[in-house]
């Protein structure tokens, strides 16, 4: 069975990484062949997929006068690849990829909703979501939502509820390992003392990650705890980011923040933390939180997407966009003993490994593929 994935871009992000993990996890299964089209550029994830010998094409499209030409090229490419199923990821790909697949003659189309809401996004994205809601009754056979919160939110926005199912992100745990030595080396490089408690964040610099919330909460904690430091890891989380640095400057605790930017050694970065914090104002199923749980970190998260479902009783969930509540929850964990923090983190690890593995997610995706192919065979048989 040939699955064509159409995605907005292949830069590092939650949807892109989930797509990569899904394809990686099925490489030993000859029943499935995956190929990918990025509507824009190749990106790091695209390069990684190519290194796995996955066929990856780029459209280099943009909202310009060239867009109709690019969409015509996409229709031609879809016909050439002749996939059994077309699966799209995120709003732009749902709209453009879904429409072009339909025009190319395909009737087994899966859309992908990767966020809960878009109040921090552009007017164009809002318009595209509205168009997707109108087309959701006719273009896609299935709409796969990354979280139950995302499904409910999009039903309220007009999406066809009868076509929507939830498949949460799955995590591959094999790369989430780090030694005590690696932890100590990175902490030393960051200038953390042996008795420092490090609160960390992980994720790209983006409005939905609400880093002002994280920085404000950190400032409140820094006033009360002299041995607490803050480690920020992710794309554009660097001192060169003048906006981020201006927020940190206002705390008067610049020396407490370490900005590492984007790193390939995510497991090592997480191991250097003692507490993980997700400060987002919007999420679907946050990958960073699941990775932190898998690294046995005690976690505090804002109540976004399915974060509360993920954590269960293994962490603390607070209202979004409330720095005081976030600081209070983090302080609760800081004030635990080291042993208590370790036990809390271990419960989180056991939960995420039991419930949110990539194997479980892949099996659910493949069940959807099989259902669509079965429907096709039954339709052909009925006509005969």
The proportion of residues in beta strands is 15-25%
Terminal residue distance: 23 Å
Physical arrangement of strands within the biggest beta sheet: 3-2-1-4-5-6-7
* Main structural class: alpha/beta
CATH level 3 topology of the largest domain: Rossmann fold
Please describe the biggest sheet, giving its number of strands, its sense, and whether it closes into a barrel. 7 strands, parallel
What fraction, in percent, of the residue positions are helical?
40-55%
The residue-averaged pLDDT reads: 93
**Second CATH tier, the architecture of the largest domain:** 3-Layer(aba) Sandwich
Q: Give unreliable regions as ranges.
A: 379-384
What report would you give on this structure?
The protein is α/β, with parallel strands linked by helices and 384 residues long. The protein has two domains: 2-170 and 358-383, Glycogen Phosphorylase B (Rossmann fold); 180-355, 3-Layer(aba) Sandwich (Rossmann fold). 47% of the residues lie in helices and 16% in strands. It has helices at residues 14-25, 43-51, 67-81, 91-103, 123-135, 148-156, 180-190, 211-224, 242-249, 266-271, 287-294, 307-311, 323-334, 338-355, 358-383; strands at 2-7, 33-38, 55-58, 85-89, 109-113, 142-145, 164-166, 197-202, 228-233, 257-261, 275-278, 299-302, 316-318. The protein has a seven-stranded parallel β-sheet, with helices on both faces. The protein has a six-stranded parallel β-sheet with strand order 10-9-8-11-12-13, sandwiched between helices. Strand 9 (228-233), helix 9 and strand 10 form a beta-alpha-beta unit. The longest helix is centred in the C-terminal third of the chain and has 26 residues, at 358-383. The protein is globular, with a radius of gyration of 22 Å. The model is unreliable at 379-384 (pLDDT under 50).
């Amino acid at each position: 069975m040939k699955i064509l994935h159409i995605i907005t871009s292949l830069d590092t992000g939650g949807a892109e990484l989930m797509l990569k993990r899904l394809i990686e996890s099925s490489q030993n299964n000859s029943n499935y062949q995956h190929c990918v089209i990025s509507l824009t550029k190749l990106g790091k994830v695209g390069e990684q997929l190519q290194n796995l010998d996955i066929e990856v094409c780029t459209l280099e499209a943009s909202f310009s006068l060239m867009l109709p030409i690019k969409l015509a090229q996409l229709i031609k490419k879809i016909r050439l690849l002749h996939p059994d199923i077309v699966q799209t990821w995120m709003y732009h790909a749902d709209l453009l990829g879904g429409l072009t697949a339909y025009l190319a003659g395909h009737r087994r189309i899966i859309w992908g909703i990767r966020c809960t809401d878009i109040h921090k996004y552009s007017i164009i994205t809002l318009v595209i979501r509205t168009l997707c809601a109108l087309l959701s009754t006719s273009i896609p056979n299935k709409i796969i939502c990354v979280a139950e919160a995302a499904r409910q939110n999009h039903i309220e926005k007009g999406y066809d509820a009868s076509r929507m199912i939830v498949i949460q992100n799955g995590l591959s745990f094999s790369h989430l390992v780090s030694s005590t030595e690696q932890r100590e080396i990175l902490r030393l490089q960051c200038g953390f003392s042996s008795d420092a408690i490090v609160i960390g964040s992980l994720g790209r610099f983006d409005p939905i990650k609400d880093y002002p919330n994280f920085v404000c909460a950190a400032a409140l904690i820094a006033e009360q705890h002299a041995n607490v430091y803050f480690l920020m890891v992710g794309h554009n989380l660097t001192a060169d980011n003048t906006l981020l640095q201006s927020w940190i400057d206002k705390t008067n605790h610049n020396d407490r923040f370490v900005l590492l930017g984007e790193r390939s050694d995510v497991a090592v970065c997480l191991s250097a933390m003692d507490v993980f914090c997700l400060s987002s104002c919007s999420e679907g199923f946050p990958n960073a939180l699941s990775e932190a749980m898998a690294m046995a970190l005690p976690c505090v998260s804002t109540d976004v997407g399915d974060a509360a479902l993920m954590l269960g009783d293994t962490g603390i969930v607070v209202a979004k966009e409330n720095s005081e509540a976030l600081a209070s929850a983090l302080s609760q964990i800081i004030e635990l003993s080291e042993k208590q923090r370790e036990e809390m983190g271990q419960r989180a690890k056991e939960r995420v490994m039991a419930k949110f593995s990539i194997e479980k997610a892949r099996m659910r995706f493949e069940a959807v593929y099989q259902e669509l192919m079965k429907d096709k065979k039954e339709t052909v048989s009925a006509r005969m």
